[in-house]
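Exam revision sheet. Question 4 asks you to relate a sequence to its structure. Input first:
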Amino acid sequence: MINYFKDVLGGFYSLLAGMAVTIRYFVKPIVTVQYPRHKIEMTPRYRGYPQLIIDPETHTHRCIACEMCSRICPSQLITLDGTKFPGEKQKRATKYIHEHQYCSLCGLCTEVCPTDALEYSKEYRLAGYRREDAVIDHLVLLQHRQYAVGLPVTPIPTEAEIAAAIAEEAAAKEAKAKAAEKAKAKEAPAEEVKK
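Answer key, structure tokens:
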């Protein structure tokens, strides 16, 4: 009979100890988040995938297609092409692909960029069903971000537009050279008449 009461008291004590733990955690703040319904605020140092920064002056990216990021990347996962368009001083990126599934988030691409065109995103929803879901086209992503904040969307030039722009610039240079040559030819006879 004494063992029975010992067992009852032992069970009651363990019940109180368990309820004390439950009550202690019941008054603490909630840590878990009901994910699809509630979004969590990311810390300032969180590193998502690298993304192009929207320049506040031009409302487009600052990438000059110098390929420093693709050269320094230890995983060799950045594919970048660029073209110098007529009327612009520097090259502009026409293709910027980032294969995020291999990215080690080392930060070398953001540090080496001479124009500070890259930053880490705060995006944490990076899961996908296919391998292609981890391949990020930064220019398309930039268009989506521009549209979301109400800025004019920067068109991505096609190969034909790039070729036409290069041909147009070459034709303009050739016409300018011919005009300078004609002006020089007109000045030469005028100088001979004066002598």
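Marking note for examiners. The radius of gyration is 32 Å.
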